[in-house]
Recover the amino acids of this structure.
């Protein structure tokens, strides 16, 4: 049975899309079929990390939401290197066209279609995992994504604003009876003690920390132009991504 995983953050700029992309690659490396849906329709961008040429994107999630196509018609197979037999990654991007984004902002959309689309993708692409790259904050779409997920990963940076916002999101996730809730701390200063930081975060939220990622110059230099773990397969960031993947797949 497929597992739905939402990757969420209370604020933008936490590295949510990068973690989603790297997590998808790590799970696919275990021979799993993985789908990714970019539901950050107001500010899409995960397609850039995978090098998907915007000029070749004929269909997007927006087209499905407006009834122009079946959702699997907006799925793009990503030919990631060194995947074992059975491993595959599919991306359903959101449109980067100005008109499509402004229409969403102006008119909204039927959020119930998302759930129907998620289930259709799982069935028609025979997925083992469906990763949802959500829009930051709390709105109708993110509440739906959280509510239907088997696993919710909340990403936060070690600063006061993120700590307060994440507390609200954790409370909402608990009220929605999410089966598994995991925290990921990203962009931590290298000078911080990971063990002490883990203890502090877990004590604050009473939620297990699946991974702690230190701010690194290689990630900044890459600038979301590629999947980090494929470019740096032996980097500490990549090793931590694999640990998070193991917890998601446990």
């Amino acid at each position: 049975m497929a597992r739905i995983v939402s990757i969420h953050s209370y604020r933008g700029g936490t590295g949510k899309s990068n973690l989603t992309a790297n997590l998808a690659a790590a799970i696919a490396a275990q021979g799993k079929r993985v789908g990714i849906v970019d539901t950050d329709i107001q500010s899409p961008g995960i397609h850039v990390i995978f090098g998907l040429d915007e000029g070749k994107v004929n269909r997007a999630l927006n087209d499905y939401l407006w009834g122009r196509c079946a959702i699997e018609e907006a799925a793009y197979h990503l030919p990631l290197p060194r995947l074992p037999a059975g491993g595959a990654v599919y991306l359903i991007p959101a449109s980067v066209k100005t008109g499509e984004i402004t229409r969403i902002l102006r008119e909204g959309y039927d959020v119930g279609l998302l759930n129907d689309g998620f289930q259709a993708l799982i069935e028609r692409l025979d997925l083992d995992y469906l990763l949802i790259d959500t829009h930051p904050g709390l709105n109708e779409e993110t509440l739906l994504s959280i509510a239907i997920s088997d696993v919710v990963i909340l990403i936060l940076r070690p600063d006061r604003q993120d700590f307060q916002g994440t507390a609200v999101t954790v409370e909402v996730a608990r009220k929605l009876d999410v089966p598994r809730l995991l925290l990921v701390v990203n962009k931590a200063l290298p000078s911080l003690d990971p063990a002490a930081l883990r203890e502090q975060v877990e004590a604050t939220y009473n939620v297990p920390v699946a991974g702690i990622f230190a701010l690194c110059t290689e990630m900044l230099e890459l600038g979301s132009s590629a999947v980090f773990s494929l470019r740096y397969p032996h980097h500490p960031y990549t090793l931590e991504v694999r640990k998070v993947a193991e917890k998601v797949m446990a």
Q: What stands out?
A: The first helix runs from residue 16 to 28. The chain has a mean pLDDT of 95.
